[in-house]
TrEMBL record:
Residues 47-402 form the Aminotransferase class I/classII large domain. InterPro entries: Aminotransferase_I/II_large, AspAT/PAT-like, NHTrfase_class1_PyrdxlP-BS, PyrdxlP-dep_Trfase, PyrdxlP-dep_Trfase_major. The keyword Chloroplast does not apply. This is Aminotransferase. Its EC number is 2.6.1.-.
Length: 409
């Protein structure tokens, strides 16, 4: 008997008990399954280059680790206010002022357990049963499920390279129906690494406001931008009353496993978000909140800036190298650490389908990139999401291995 033999088959409802029907609407997260395969190969002794994970290869700077240790020693481990500790909300507000010249009242900041909890709270506050929320296809897969979890309907709008893989105001007007309540965007985006330009974002917000809707704008990759001056939705006209921005310490601040993020919400919605946060989470991790204060110290900010430049260096190496291998990169990704690459031009018999190609690359070259499957329905079989959250040297090795793979077949 194996240690799983005692477990009932979860699909045998008579034996396993009945799960809620929404479970059937949540698609499996293929990235995770793919990462598991790569990990199994690694455990079997293979040298796998991971270009599949959406997680910085950097960890929190020493000042943050020291602040966590100090908070632990001082016993700062009890529940905090549901909206977060006041010094952290102040520090986040100051960060917006210093980095982006935006005034945000600390009272509008809701500290959460990562952007994930932020998105969950936003959907809990704004989405009713059968409400429709527009989002681009491709998009971050969990976004559909946050909406579904509250019995709303995610409406995926095919968005190709001509729109930087993002929604446009014209899209929003065209797809806004009787049940549409708002839009959910991410800029820069996962999986494409592309941002929405400031003018278009303003037009989207205007379109949403004219319909008394909401815009949830996920800015989790804020800070990781490489070309133009980054724009926050918070700086837009009208952002004060209809826009909720989502943010996190996971990416720019390299704190994925600490589970810390935040929202900026319109002032009149703060009590609703507070009530939900109290009930659903009580608070975000106290330890992570105290540690995160050190993210805003000048020495930490300097480290983050060096890391941003390192990500840019990797992107600037990888984009031409992938194009040379035959990948199509129709729009230069300007942020995050992803490239959404079309695999039609690859000289390999498996290249007609991104899932087959990803599998061959993993098995034969031990290079792990994820197929577009998770990110939408529009053209997932044409695309791979390539993450450069791994060292420059490993990226060079990956390109060399793929060169050998494609030219040997
Ligand atoms: C666009 C986007 N939003 C939200 C998340 C969730 O991040 P967090 O670790 O802050 O919960 C991710 C994680 O990859 C993401 O890419």
């Amino acid at each position: 008997m194996t240690d799983t033999d005692w477990m009932p088959d979860p699909f045998d409802t008579a034996r396993a008990g009945r799960l809620a029907s929404r479970i059937g609407q949540i698609a499996p997260f293929h990235v995770m399954e793919f990462v598991k395969q790569a990990t199994r190969l690694e455990q079997a002794g293979h040298d796998v280059i991971h270009m599949s994970i959406g997680e910085p290869d950097f960890t929190a700077p020493a000042a943050v680790v020291n602040a966590a240790a100090s908070a632990l020693r001082r016993g700062l481990t009890q529940y905090t206010p549901a909206l977060g500790i006041a010094p952290l909300r102040d520090a986040i507000a100051m960060h917006y002022q210093r980095m982006y010249g935006i005034d945000v009242e600390p009272a509008r900041i809701v500290v959460t357990a990562g952007a994930s909890a932020a998105l969950l709270l936003a959907c809990a506050a704004l989405v009713d049963r059968d409400d429709e929320v527009l989002m681009p296809d491709p998009t971050y897969p969990c976004n559909r499920h946050f909406v579904t979890a509250f019995e709303g309907r995610a409406v995926l709008v095919p968005s190709d390279a001509t729109q930087r893989f993002q929604l446009s105001a014209a899209h929003v007007q065209q797809h806004w129906g009787a049940n549409t309540r708002g839009v959910l965007l991410a800029s820069p985006s996962n999986p494409t690494g592309t941002s929405i330009d400031a003018g278009e974002l303003q037009r989207i917000v205007d379109t949403v406001r004219a319909r008394a809707g909401f815009a949830i704008v996920d800015e989790i990759y804020q800070g990781l931008t490489y070309d133009a001056t980054p724009v926050s939705a918070l700086s837009l006209h009208g952002a004060h009353d209809h826009v909720v921005t989502v943010n996190s310490f996971s990416k720019y601040f390299s704190m994925t496993g600490w589970r810390l993020g935040w929202l900026v919400v319109p002032p009149h919605w703060v009590p609703a978000f507070e009530k939900l946060a109290q009930n659903l989470f009580i608070c975000a991790s106290a330890l992570a909140q105290h540690a995160a204060l050190a993210c805003f110290e000048p020495a930490s900010l300097e480290i983050y800036e060096q890391r941003r430049l390192e990500f840019k260096r990797r992107r600037d190496f990888l984009v031409p190298a992938l194009r040379e291998l035959g990948f199509g990169i129709p729009v230069l990704p300007d942020g995050a650490f992803y490239i959404y690459a079309n695999c039609h031009g690859i000289a390999h018999q498996a290249a007609s389908d991104s899932a087959a190609l990803a599998s061959v690359m993993l098995q034969e070259a031990k290079v792990s990139m994820v197929p577009g499957l998770d990110f939408g329905m529009h053209a997932p079989h044409d695309y791979l999401r390539i993450s450069y959250a791994t060292s420059y040297e490993r990226l060079q090795q990956a390109i060399a291995r793929l060169h050998t793979l494609f030219h040997a077949s």
